[in-house]
Write a sequence for this structure.
């Protein structure tokens, strides 16, 4: 078993390197003639962890036997990948998206600044905070789709796009901490440690709100001269308007999936009814983002499989650190592993002080925007926004650079 643990850690490290090199594969694909398709595939960030999880299972089958490999795969919990897939597709449906757009537009018109500037700020501030109610993956989906034509488009300097992406990822990660059920790293410990939504709002919420507002304000100020109030609308005027009752039913589907987020049999049932409804009233729909959702689900499922065998080296690190060191340790470790997995390992440690518990979760959520794998909703943002960047790919180094300053802001506020 020790050998397979070491092999799993090596494969996990290779997957991390592959993630950082994904944009390089896209550039190679553009210059390749015979194998462009293969390099484009390797450049898809969403397939990285699923691909290397498959490699791990094949090696496990060779070394330990096929039954043991299958037993391990079946022992993993895939509720989160399934939930993110379902919530992405529903949240990105035209009736839900237009309902949120209308809300943002109405608030933007009341602001003293230009409409486009106000809309960008609201997408980077209000929508991430709404994630505390509709969950972080849903907030990421809505914010990304609304920001795409405003910020992630030709003509905006690449460094500003990465700055906006970093703020979006950090704000989504911390914006879900006002409740105990919306942020995956909080959800992993809430029941074990007795943290309810009142506790989260009083200990994390106000700090998260302050950090979200600061980050959104700074990057929107930098973007202000680049934003246009005349954004292409894809012939929206020629489309059939969505009746209020259709939007209402979509929002009921969204709410139902959120309420039963921990029961895949139930929320998948709602999803099947949702697919039937969208087919019956197709004139009010855009094409559903099934491909993007499946790719994100595949990414997260691969992370579940690979991450499940990293406990042997991660948990000793987490358990050996004093509270302040634990905060910075969690902040750094989150960049190379899913923050929900990190806090779950913390929940298994007996005798943690209340201060240590707070520092672990605060560090995990503050660092949730540093890389694609740091927070479960991040792959959704990458899938929906990558076409707005050069080569149609998001550079991990660029994301890291864009997320550093908003991460510092979040970290400072959580350390208060």
């Amino acid at each position: 078993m020790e050998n397979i643990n070491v092999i799993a850690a090596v494969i996990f490290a290779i997957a991390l390197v592959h993630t950082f090199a994904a944009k390089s594969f896209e550039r190679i694909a553009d210059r390749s003639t015979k194998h462009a398709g293969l390099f484009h595939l390797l450049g898809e960030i969403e397939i990285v962890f699923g691909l290397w999880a498959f490699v791990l299972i094949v090696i496990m089958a060779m070394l330990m036997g096929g039954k043991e490999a299958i037993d391990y795969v079946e022992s993993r919990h895939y509720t989160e990948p399934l939930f993110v897939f379902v919530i992405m597709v529903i949240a990105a449906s035209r009736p839900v998206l237009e309902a949120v757009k209308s809300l943002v537009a109405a608030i933007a018109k009341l602001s003293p600044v230009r409409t486009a500037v106000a809309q960008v700020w609201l997408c980077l501030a209000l929508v991430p905070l709404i994630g505390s109610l509709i969950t972080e993956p849903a907030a990421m989906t809505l914010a990304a789709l609304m920001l795409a034509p405003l910020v992630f488009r030709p003509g905006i300097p690449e460094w500003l796009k990465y700055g906006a992406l970093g703020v979006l990822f950090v704000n989504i990660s911390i914006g879900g901490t006002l409740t105990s059920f919306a942020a995956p790293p909080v959800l992993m410990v809430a029941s074990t440690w007795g943290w309810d939504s009142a506790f989260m709002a009083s200990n994390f919420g106000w700090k998260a709100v302050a950090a979200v507002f600061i980050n959104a304000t700074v990057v929107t100020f930098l973007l202000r001269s680049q934003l246009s109030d005349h954004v292409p609308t894809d012939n929206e005027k020629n489309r059939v308007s969505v009746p209020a009752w259709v939007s209402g039913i979509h929002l009921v589907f969204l709410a139902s999936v959120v309420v039963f987020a921990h029961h895949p049999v139930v929320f998948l049932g709602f999803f099947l009814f949702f697919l039937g409804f969208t087919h019956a009233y197709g004139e009010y729909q855009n094409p559903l983002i099934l491909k993007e959702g499946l790719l994100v689900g595949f990414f997260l499922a691969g992370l579940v499989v690979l991450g499940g065998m990293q406990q042997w080296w991660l948990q000793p690190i987490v358990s050996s650190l004093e509270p302040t060191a634990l905060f910075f340790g969690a902040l750094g470790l989150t960049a190379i592993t899913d923050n929900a997995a990190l806090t779950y390992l913390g929940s298994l440690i007996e005798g943690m002080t209340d201060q240590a518990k707070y520092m672990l979760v605060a560090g995990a959520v503050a660092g949730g925007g540093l890389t694609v794998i740091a927070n479960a909703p991040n792959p959704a943002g990458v899938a929906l926004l990558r076409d707005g960047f050069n080569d149609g790919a998001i550079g991990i180094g660029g994301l890291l650079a864009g997320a550093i300053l908003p991460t510092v802001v979040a970290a400072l506020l959580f350390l208060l």
Q: What stands out?
A: The two ends are 43 Å apart (CA to CA). The mean pLDDT is 91. The CA atoms of residues 173 and 365 lie 6 Å apart. The chain is about 70% helix and 0% strand.
